[in-house]
Design a protein that fits this description.
Growth Hormone, Chain: A, 22 helices, 2 strands
Protein backbone atom coordinates (compact mmCIF):
# COMPACT_ATOMS: atom_id res chain seq x y z
CA UNK A 1 0.00 0.00 0.00
CA UNK A 2 0.97 3.62 -0.19
CA UNK A 3 2.07 5.20 3.05
CA UNK A 4 -1.25 7.04 3.29
CA UNK A 5 -3.36 3.97 2.79
CA UNK A 6 -1.19 1.88 5.07
CA UNK A 7 -1.38 4.33 7.96
CA UNK A 8 -5.15 4.67 7.66
CA UNK A 9 -5.57 0.92 7.54
CA UNK A 10 -3.33 0.47 10.58
CA UNK A 11 -5.48 3.00 12.43
CA UNK A 12 -8.50 0.76 12.00
CA UNK A 13 -7.00 -2.40 13.47
CA UNK A 14 -8.36 -4.38 16.41
CA UNK A 15 -11.50 -2.70 17.82
CA UNK A 16 -12.11 -0.70 14.66
CA UNK A 17 -11.98 -3.75 12.43
CA UNK A 18 -14.23 -5.69 14.77
CA UNK A 19 -16.74 -2.85 14.61
CA UNK A 20 -16.59 -2.84 10.81
CA UNK A 21 -17.01 -6.63 10.70
CA UNK A 22 -20.05 -6.40 12.97
CA UNK A 23 -21.56 -3.51 10.99
CA UNK A 24 -21.26 -5.31 7.66
CA UNK A 25 -22.46 -8.61 9.12
CA UNK A 26 -25.51 -7.17 10.90
CA UNK A 27 -26.53 -4.91 8.03
CA UNK A 28 -26.11 -7.55 5.34
CA UNK A 29 -27.96 -10.15 7.42
CA UNK A 30 -30.92 -7.79 7.79
CA UNK A 31 -30.95 -6.88 4.09
CA UNK A 32 -30.87 -10.50 2.99
CA UNK A 33 -33.45 -11.50 5.58
CA UNK A 34 -35.70 -9.01 3.81
CA UNK A 35 -34.82 -10.44 0.41
CA UNK A 36 -35.24 -14.11 1.37
CA UNK A 37 -38.51 -13.59 3.22
CA UNK A 38 -39.96 -12.69 -0.15
CA UNK A 39 -38.70 -15.87 -1.82
CA UNK A 40 -40.07 -18.04 0.98
CA UNK A 41 -43.47 -16.36 0.88
CA UNK A 42 -43.55 -16.58 -2.92
CA UNK A 43 -43.27 -20.36 -2.72
CA UNK A 44 -45.87 -20.73 0.03
CA UNK A 45 -48.47 -17.97 -0.26
CA UNK A 46 -48.18 -15.45 -3.10
CA UNK A 47 -49.69 -17.59 -5.87
CA UNK A 48 -52.92 -17.73 -3.88
CA UNK A 49 -52.79 -14.25 -2.33
CA UNK A 50 -51.84 -12.20 -5.41
CA UNK A 51 -52.26 -14.36 -8.53
CA UNK A 52 -55.30 -16.55 -7.75
CA UNK A 53 -57.20 -15.78 -11.02
CA UNK A 54 -54.32 -17.25 -13.05
CA UNK A 55 -54.90 -20.70 -11.57
CA UNK A 56 -52.59 -22.77 -9.39
CA UNK A 57 -49.94 -23.70 -11.99
CA UNK A 58 -49.65 -20.34 -13.74
CA UNK A 59 -50.07 -18.46 -10.46
CA UNK A 60 -47.08 -20.28 -9.00
CA UNK A 61 -44.97 -19.48 -12.07
CA UNK A 62 -45.99 -15.81 -11.79
CA UNK A 63 -45.12 -15.77 -8.08
CA UNK A 64 -41.66 -17.18 -8.82
CA UNK A 65 -41.30 -14.76 -11.74
CA UNK A 66 -41.68 -11.83 -9.33
CA UNK A 67 -38.71 -13.27 -7.44
CA UNK A 68 -36.73 -13.00 -10.66
CA UNK A 69 -37.99 -9.58 -11.76
CA UNK A 70 -36.16 -7.89 -8.90
CA UNK A 71 -32.90 -9.28 -10.27
CA UNK A 72 -33.44 -7.37 -13.49
CA UNK A 73 -33.27 -4.17 -11.46
CA UNK A 74 -30.19 -5.20 -9.51
CA UNK A 75 -27.85 -3.90 -12.24
CA UNK A 76 -29.57 -0.49 -12.10
CA UNK A 77 -29.11 -0.52 -8.32
CA UNK A 78 -25.51 -1.58 -8.82
CA UNK A 79 -24.92 1.16 -11.42
CA UNK A 80 -26.32 3.82 -9.11
CA UNK A 81 -24.59 2.48 -6.00
CA UNK A 82 -21.34 2.01 -7.88
CA UNK A 83 -21.44 5.55 -9.23
CA UNK A 84 -22.14 7.15 -5.87
CA UNK A 85 -19.96 4.68 -3.97
CA UNK A 86 -16.97 5.60 -6.14
CA UNK A 87 -17.91 9.30 -6.01
CA UNK A 88 -19.24 10.08 -2.50
CA UNK A 89 -18.18 7.06 -0.46
CA UNK A 90 -19.00 3.51 0.60
CA UNK A 91 -20.67 4.25 3.95
CA UNK A 92 -23.40 6.59 2.67
CA UNK A 93 -24.48 4.03 0.08
CA UNK A 94 -24.60 1.28 2.70
CA UNK A 95 -26.99 3.26 4.90
CA UNK A 96 -29.23 4.21 1.98
CA UNK A 97 -29.58 0.66 0.64
CA UNK A 98 -30.44 -0.65 4.09
CA UNK A 99 -33.27 1.86 4.55
CA UNK A 100 -34.61 1.26 1.03
CA UNK A 101 -34.68 -2.52 1.45
CA UNK A 102 -36.28 -2.38 4.88
CA UNK A 103 -38.92 0.12 3.84
CA UNK A 104 -39.98 -1.94 0.81
CA UNK A 105 -40.11 -5.15 2.86
CA UNK A 106 -42.24 -3.58 5.59
CA UNK A 107 -44.71 -2.25 3.01
CA UNK A 108 -45.11 -5.72 1.48
CA UNK A 109 -46.34 -6.82 4.90
CA UNK A 110 -49.31 -4.43 4.71
CA UNK A 111 -50.26 -4.94 1.04
CA UNK A 112 -53.85 -5.83 0.18
CA UNK A 113 -54.38 -9.17 -1.56
CA UNK A 114 -56.05 -9.75 -4.92
CA UNK A 115 -59.35 -10.53 -3.20
CA UNK A 116 -59.53 -7.05 -1.66
CA UNK A 117 -57.74 -4.85 -4.24
CA UNK A 118 -57.90 -6.72 -7.52
CA UNK A 119 -55.12 -6.25 -10.05
CA UNK A 120 -53.68 -3.35 -8.01
CA UNK A 121 -52.39 -5.87 -5.45
CA UNK A 122 -49.91 -7.72 -7.73
CA UNK A 123 -48.88 -4.40 -9.33
CA UNK A 124 -47.94 -2.95 -5.92
CA UNK A 125 -46.19 -6.20 -5.00
CA UNK A 126 -44.12 -6.00 -8.17
CA UNK A 127 -43.19 -2.35 -7.57
CA UNK A 128 -42.00 -3.08 -4.04
CA UNK A 129 -40.05 -6.10 -5.27
CA UNK A 130 -38.34 -3.82 -7.79
CA UNK A 131 -37.29 -1.52 -4.92
CA UNK A 132 -35.86 -4.56 -3.14
CA UNK A 133 -33.88 -5.36 -6.28
CA UNK A 134 -32.48 -1.83 -6.47
CA UNK A 135 -31.38 -2.01 -2.83
CA UNK A 136 -29.85 -5.48 -3.18
CA UNK A 137 -27.91 -4.34 -6.25
CA UNK A 138 -26.02 -1.76 -4.22
CA UNK A 139 -25.85 -3.41 -0.79
CA UNK A 140 -23.32 -6.15 -1.37
CA UNK A 141 -20.63 -4.09 -3.09
CA UNK A 142 -20.55 -1.45 -0.38
CA UNK A 143 -20.43 -3.98 2.46
CA UNK A 144 -17.67 -5.93 0.76
CA UNK A 145 -15.45 -2.91 0.16
CA UNK A 146 -15.90 -1.60 3.68
CA UNK A 147 -14.66 -4.96 4.96
CA UNK A 148 -11.90 -5.70 2.46
CA UNK A 149 -10.45 -2.19 2.09
CA UNK A 150 -10.07 -1.90 5.88
CA UNK A 151 -8.38 -5.33 6.16
CA UNK A 152 -4.71 -6.19 6.07
CA UNK A 153 -3.68 -8.07 2.95
CA UNK A 154 -2.99 -11.39 4.74
CA UNK A 155 -6.56 -11.75 5.99
CA UNK A 156 -8.66 -10.14 3.25
CA UNK A 157 -10.74 -13.22 2.51
CA UNK A 158 -11.55 -13.66 6.19
CA UNK A 159 -12.50 -9.98 6.53
CA UNK A 160 -14.57 -10.18 3.36
CA UNK A 161 -16.42 -13.23 4.65
CA UNK A 162 -18.45 -11.18 7.14
CA UNK A 163 -20.75 -9.56 4.55
CA UNK A 164 -20.80 -12.97 2.83
CA UNK A 165 -21.99 -14.56 6.07
CA UNK A 166 -24.89 -12.14 6.10
CA UNK A 167 -26.45 -14.05 3.18
CA UNK A 168 -26.75 -17.50 4.84
CA UNK A 169 -27.56 -15.82 8.16
CA UNK A 170 -30.31 -13.82 6.46
CA UNK A 171 -31.64 -17.03 4.96
CA UNK A 172 -31.44 -18.75 8.35
CA UNK A 173 -33.34 -15.89 9.99
CA UNK A 174 -35.96 -15.76 7.23
CA UNK A 175 -36.65 -19.50 7.16
CA UNK A 176 -36.53 -19.69 10.98
CA UNK A 177 -39.08 -16.89 11.46
CA UNK A 178 -41.32 -18.41 8.77
CA UNK A 179 -41.07 -21.84 10.42
CA UNK A 180 -42.10 -20.24 13.72
CA UNK A 181 -45.11 -18.64 12.06
CA UNK A 182 -46.23 -21.79 10.23
CA UNK A 183 -45.68 -24.15 13.16
CA UNK A 184 -46.53 -22.19 16.31
CA UNK A 185 -48.07 -18.75 15.89
CA UNK A 186 -50.27 -19.19 12.81
CA UNK A 187 -50.39 -22.82 11.66
CA UNK A 188 -52.54 -23.98 8.78
CA UNK A 189 -54.94 -21.50 7.19
CA UNK A 190 -53.99 -18.73 9.63
CA UNK A 191 -50.56 -18.50 8.01
CA UNK A 192 -52.14 -18.05 4.58
CA UNK A 193 -54.64 -15.53 5.93
CA UNK A 194 -52.34 -13.26 7.96
CA UNK A 195 -49.33 -15.08 9.41
CA UNK A 196 -47.16 -14.55 6.33
CA UNK A 197 -47.26 -10.78 6.95
CA UNK A 198 -45.50 -10.90 10.32
CA UNK A 199 -41.98 -11.71 9.01
CA UNK A 200 -42.24 -8.74 6.62
CA UNK A 201 -43.39 -6.38 9.38
CA UNK A 202 -40.50 -7.45 11.62
CA UNK A 203 -38.18 -5.77 9.13
CA UNK A 204 -39.26 -2.39 10.53
CA UNK A 205 -37.57 -3.23 13.85
CA UNK A 206 -34.51 -4.82 12.28
CA UNK A 207 -33.89 -1.85 10.01
CA UNK A 208 -33.45 0.48 13.00
CA UNK A 209 -30.79 -1.80 14.47
CA UNK A 210 -28.92 -2.00 11.18
CA UNK A 211 -29.10 1.74 10.63
CA UNK A 212 -27.59 2.53 14.02
CA UNK A 213 -24.79 -0.02 13.59
CA UNK A 214 -23.79 1.14 10.12
CA UNK A 215 -23.70 4.81 11.10
CA UNK A 216 -20.90 4.07 13.56
CA UNK A 217 -18.25 2.83 11.10
CA UNK A 218 -15.49 4.87 9.48
CA UNK A 219 -15.25 5.41 5.75
CA UNK A 220 -12.99 3.08 3.75
CA UNK A 221 -9.33 4.19 3.83
CA UNK A 222 -9.04 3.57 0.08
CA UNK A 223 -11.93 5.93 -0.62
CA UNK A 224 -10.42 8.52 1.73
CA UNK A 225 -7.24 8.29 -0.32
CA UNK A 226 -9.21 8.61 -3.57
CA UNK A 227 -10.90 11.74 -2.23
CA UNK A 228 -7.63 13.25 -0.98
CA UNK A 229 -5.92 12.68 -4.33
CA UNK A 230 -8.97 13.59 -6.45
CA UNK A 231 -8.70 10.14 -8.03
CA UNK A 232 -12.42 9.69 -8.58
CA UNK A 233 -13.57 9.30 -12.21
CA UNK A 234 -16.46 11.50 -13.24
CA UNK A 235 -18.54 8.56 -14.50
CA UNK A 236 -17.07 5.36 -13.00
CA UNK A 237 -19.45 3.01 -14.84
CA UNK A 238 -18.39 4.34 -18.25
CA UNK A 239 -14.74 3.88 -17.33
CA UNK A 240 -15.45 0.38 -16.04
CA UNK A 241 -17.10 -0.86 -19.24
CA UNK A 242 -14.68 0.99 -21.52
CA UNK A 243 -11.67 -0.76 -20.05
CA UNK A 244 -12.85 -3.80 -18.06
CA UNK A 245 -16.05 -5.11 -19.65
CA UNK A 246 -14.70 -8.64 -20.15
CA UNK A 247 -13.49 -8.78 -16.58
CA UNK A 248 -17.02 -7.87 -15.43
CA UNK A 249 -18.50 -10.68 -17.54
CA UNK A 250 -16.13 -13.35 -16.25
CA UNK A 251 -16.56 -12.25 -12.64
CA UNK A 252 -20.34 -12.44 -13.12
CA UNK A 253 -20.11 -16.00 -14.50
CA UNK A 254 -17.96 -17.07 -11.53
CA UNK A 255 -20.86 -16.11 -9.27
CA UNK A 256 -23.68 -17.34 -11.53
CA UNK A 257 -23.21 -21.03 -10.71
CA UNK A 258 -23.32 -20.44 -6.98
CA UNK A 259 -26.35 -18.19 -7.29
CA UNK A 260 -28.30 -20.68 -9.40
CA UNK A 261 -27.77 -23.37 -6.75
CA UNK A 262 -28.56 -21.04 -3.87
CA UNK A 263 -31.82 -19.82 -5.33
CA UNK A 264 -33.18 -23.31 -5.69
CA UNK A 265 -33.73 -22.98 -1.94
CA UNK A 266 -33.90 -19.27 -1.22
CA UNK A 267 -36.11 -18.57 -4.23
CA UNK A 268 -38.77 -20.89 -2.86
CA UNK A 269 -38.60 -23.73 -5.42
CA UNK A 270 -37.52 -26.51 -3.04
CA UNK A 271 -39.92 -25.22 -0.37
CA UNK A 272 -42.85 -25.41 -2.77
CA UNK A 273 -41.76 -28.69 -4.42
CA UNK A 274 -41.50 -30.53 -1.12
CA UNK A 275 -44.61 -29.05 0.55
CA UNK A 276 -47.10 -28.98 -2.34
CA UNK A 277 -49.98 -31.20 -1.13
CA UNK A 278 -50.70 -32.22 -4.74
CA UNK A 279 -47.03 -32.79 -5.57
CA UNK A 280 -44.88 -35.93 -5.45
CA UNK A 281 -43.38 -35.27 -1.97
CA UNK A 282 -46.09 -33.77 0.26
CA UNK A 283 -44.08 -32.86 3.36
CA UNK A 284 -45.33 -30.47 6.04
CA UNK A 285 -44.22 -26.85 5.79
CA UNK A 286 -42.63 -26.46 9.21
CA UNK A 287 -40.22 -29.47 9.06
CA UNK A 288 -39.11 -28.39 5.58
CA UNK A 289 -38.45 -24.83 6.75
CA UNK A 290 -36.52 -26.15 9.76
CA UNK A 291 -34.39 -28.30 7.41
CA UNK A 292 -33.69 -25.22 5.28
CA UNK A 293 -32.81 -23.27 8.43
CA UNK A 294 -30.30 -25.93 9.48
CA UNK A 295 -28.82 -26.00 5.97
CA UNK A 296 -28.45 -22.21 6.04
CA UNK A 297 -26.46 -22.51 9.28
CA UNK A 298 -24.15 -25.04 7.62
CA UNK A 299 -23.83 -22.78 4.59
CA UNK A 300 -22.62 -20.04 6.92
CA UNK A 301 -20.06 -22.36 8.53
CA UNK A 302 -18.66 -23.44 5.16
CA UNK A 303 -18.61 -19.83 3.95
CA UNK A 304 -16.34 -18.84 6.83
CA UNK A 305 -14.19 -21.97 6.46
CA UNK A 306 -13.75 -21.27 2.76
CA UNK A 307 -12.58 -17.72 3.50
CA UNK A 308 -9.88 -19.12 5.79
CA UNK A 309 -8.94 -21.59 3.05
CA UNK A 310 -8.77 -18.78 0.48
CA UNK A 311 -6.29 -16.86 2.62
CA UNK A 312 -4.09 -19.98 2.74
CA UNK A 313 -4.42 -21.70 -0.64
CA UNK A 314 -5.85 -18.92 -2.82
CA UNK A 315 -9.23 -17.81 -4.03
CA UNK A 316 -9.24 -19.79 -7.28
CA UNK A 317 -8.32 -23.15 -5.76
CA UNK A 318 -11.02 -22.77 -3.13
CA UNK A 319 -13.59 -21.99 -5.79
CA UNK A 320 -12.60 -24.97 -7.93
CA UNK A 321 -12.88 -27.33 -4.95
CA UNK A 322 -16.35 -25.91 -4.22
CA UNK A 323 -17.61 -26.29 -7.77
CA UNK A 324 -16.22 -29.82 -7.94
CA UNK A 325 -18.30 -30.63 -4.85
CA UNK A 326 -21.41 -29.06 -6.36
CA UNK A 327 -21.01 -30.98 -9.63
CA UNK A 328 -20.53 -34.25 -7.76
CA UNK A 329 -23.48 -33.58 -5.45
CA UNK A 330 -26.16 -32.11 -7.71
CA UNK A 331 -27.97 -35.31 -8.77
CA UNK A 332 -27.65 -37.10 -5.38
CA UNK A 333 -28.97 -33.96 -3.68
CA UNK A 334 -32.02 -33.75 -5.94
CA UNK A 335 -32.71 -37.45 -5.35
CA UNK A 336 -32.68 -36.82 -1.60
CA UNK A 337 -34.98 -33.81 -2.03
CA UNK A 338 -37.47 -35.98 -3.92
CA UNK A 339 -37.28 -38.85 -1.41
CA UNK A 340 -40.27 -37.73 0.66
CA UNK A 341 -38.30 -38.01 3.91
CA UNK A 342 -37.47 -34.80 5.76
CA UNK A 343 -34.21 -36.25 7.13
CA UNK A 344 -33.10 -37.16 3.62
CA UNK A 345 -34.04 -33.63 2.56
CA UNK A 346 -31.87 -32.24 5.35
CA UNK A 347 -28.98 -34.50 4.30
CA UNK A 348 -29.28 -33.29 0.71
CA UNK A 349 -29.39 -29.63 1.65
CA UNK A 350 -26.43 -30.10 4.02
CA UNK A 351 -24.44 -31.71 1.21
CA UNK A 352 -25.24 -28.79 -1.07
CA UNK A 353 -24.23 -26.32 1.65
CA UNK A 354 -20.59 -27.40 1.53
CA UNK A 355 -20.21 -26.53 -2.15
CA UNK A 356 -22.25 -23.35 -1.76
CA UNK A 357 -20.01 -22.13 1.04
CA UNK A 358 -16.77 -22.92 -0.76
CA UNK A 359 -17.93 -21.00 -3.83
CA UNK A 360 -19.06 -17.99 -1.82
CA UNK A 361 -16.64 -17.25 1.02
CA UNK A 362 -13.68 -16.06 -1.13
CA UNK A 363 -15.80 -13.91 -3.44
CA UNK A 364 -15.51 -10.59 -1.62
CA UNK A 365 -11.71 -10.64 -1.55
CA UNK A 366 -11.35 -11.91 -5.12
CA UNK A 367 -13.73 -9.36 -6.61
CA UNK A 368 -12.02 -6.54 -4.72
CA UNK A 369 -8.58 -7.62 -5.96
CA UNK A 370 -9.43 -7.79 -9.66
CA UNK A 371 -10.73 -4.21 -10.08
CA UNK A 372 -8.69 -0.98 -9.81
CA UNK A 373 -9.52 1.35 -6.91
CA UNK A 374 -11.08 4.10 -9.06
CA UNK A 375 -13.86 1.83 -10.39
CA UNK A 376 -13.84 -0.87 -7.71
CA UNK A 377 -17.29 -0.24 -6.23
CA UNK A 378 -18.84 -0.16 -9.70
CA UNK A 379 -16.96 -3.29 -10.81
CA UNK A 380 -17.75 -5.31 -7.71
CA UNK A 381 -21.43 -4.30 -7.52
CA UNK A 382 -22.21 -4.69 -11.22
CA UNK A 383 -20.41 -8.04 -11.55
CA UNK A 384 -22.37 -9.34 -8.58
CA UNK A 385 -25.67 -8.05 -9.95
CA UNK A 386 -25.09 -9.52 -13.40
CA UNK A 387 -24.05 -12.83 -11.86
CA UNK A 388 -27.28 -12.85 -9.89
CA UNK A 389 -29.29 -12.32 -13.09
CA UNK A 390 -27.42 -15.00 -15.03
CA UNK A 391 -27.60 -17.45 -12.14
CA UNK A 392 -30.45 -16.90 -9.73
CA UNK A 393 -32.94 -14.47 -11.25
CA UNK A 394 -35.22 -17.01 -12.85
CA UNK A 395 -33.72 -20.22 -11.49
CA UNK A 396 -36.87 -21.05 -9.44
CA UNK A 397 -39.10 -20.26 -12.43
CA UNK A 398 -36.95 -22.35 -14.78
CA UNK A 399 -36.87 -25.22 -12.29
CA UNK A 400 -40.66 -25.09 -11.81
CA UNK A 401 -41.23 -25.05 -15.59
CA UNK A 402 -38.85 -28.00 -16.07
CA UNK A 403 -40.66 -30.02 -13.40
CA UNK A 404 -44.05 -29.20 -14.89
CA UNK A 405 -42.77 -30.25 -18.33
CA UNK A 406 -40.82 -33.41 -17.41
CA UNK A 407 -42.36 -34.46 -14.09
CA UNK A 408 -39.01 -35.13 -12.36
CA UNK A 409 -36.01 -33.22 -11.02
CA UNK A 410 -33.56 -34.71 -13.54
CA UNK A 411 -33.88 -31.80 -15.96
CA UNK A 412 -33.30 -29.39 -13.05
CA UNK A 413 -30.06 -31.26 -12.29
CA UNK A 414 -28.90 -30.90 -15.91
CA UNK A 415 -29.66 -27.19 -15.80
CA UNK A 416 -27.69 -26.71 -12.57
CA UNK A 417 -24.75 -28.79 -13.79
CA UNK A 418 -24.57 -26.61 -16.91
CA UNK A 419 -24.42 -23.48 -14.76
CA UNK A 420 -21.63 -25.01 -12.66
CA UNK A 421 -19.58 -25.84 -15.76
CA UNK A 422 -19.88 -22.25 -17.03
CA UNK A 423 -18.72 -20.98 -13.64
CA UNK A 424 -15.74 -23.35 -13.65
CA UNK A 425 -14.64 -22.08 -17.08
CA UNK A 426 -14.83 -18.46 -15.88
CA UNK A 427 -12.98 -19.35 -12.67
CA UNK A 428 -10.17 -20.93 -14.67
CA UNK A 429 -9.84 -17.82 -16.86
CA UNK A 430 -9.37 -15.45 -13.92
CA UNK A 431 -6.06 -15.31 -12.12
CA UNK A 432 -5.56 -15.12 -8.36
CA UNK A 433 -4.05 -11.88 -7.04
CA UNK A 434 -4.05 -12.35 -3.26
CA UNK A 435 -2.35 -9.55 -1.37
CA UNK A 436 -2.25 -7.08 -4.25
CA UNK A 437 -2.05 -3.46 -3.07
CA UNK A 438 -5.59 -2.03 -3.20
CA UNK A 439 -4.57 1.62 -2.77
CA UNK A 440 -4.90 4.38 -5.34
CA UNK A 441 -1.13 4.71 -5.48
CA UNK A 442 -0.95 1.22 -6.94
CA UNK A 443 -3.35 1.93 -9.80
CA UNK A 444 -0.70 1.19 -12.44
CA UNK A 445 -0.01 -2.26 -11.00
CA UNK A 446 -3.74 -2.98 -10.76
CA UNK A 447 -4.25 -1.98 -14.39
CA UNK A 448 -1.24 -3.99 -15.60
CA UNK A 449 -2.48 -7.04 -13.74
CA UNK A 450 -5.36 -7.53 -16.18
CA UNK A 451 -3.17 -8.82 -18.91
CA UNK A 452 -2.84 -10.84 -21.99
CA UNK A 453 -6.32 -11.15 -23.41
CA UNK A 454 -7.22 -7.94 -25.21
CA UNK A 455 -10.45 -7.72 -27.16
CA UNK A 456 -10.20 -6.12 -30.65
CA UNK A 457 -10.63 -2.33 -30.59
CA UNK A 458 -10.77 -2.39 -26.80
CA UNK A 459 -8.43 -2.10 -23.87
CA UNK A 460 -10.34 -4.52 -21.72
CA UNK A 461 -7.94 -7.01 -20.12
CA UNK A 462 -8.31 -10.15 -18.15
CA UNK A 463 -5.74 -11.98 -16.08
CA UNK A 464 -5.32 -15.44 -17.51
CA UNK A 465 -3.77 -18.51 -15.94
Amino acid sequence: MTATTSSRTDATTAAGRRRIAMATLVGTTIEWYDFFIYGTAAGLVFAQAFFAPAGERIGLLLAFATVGVSFLFRPLGAFLAGHFGDRIGRRAVLVLTLVLMGGATTLIGVLPTYDSAGVLAPVLLLLLRILQGLAAGGEWGGAVLMSVEHADRRHRARAGSFPQLGVPLGMLLASGVTALMTGVVSPGDAFTAWGWRVPFLLSFLLIGIGFLVRRTVDESPVFQEMRAQSARPRVPVVELFRRHWLLVLLAALVFAGNNAAGYMTTGGFITNYTTDPDGPVGLERTPVLLAITAAAALWGVFTYVSALMADRIGRKRTYLIGYALLLAAVFPVLALVASGDVWMLLAGLALFSAGLGLTYGPQAAWYSEIFPASVRFSGVAISYALGAILGGAFAPTIAQALVQEHGTLTAVGVYLAGMFVLAVVATCLLRDRPGIDLGVGNQAEQEAGATVFTAPHDRSRVELV
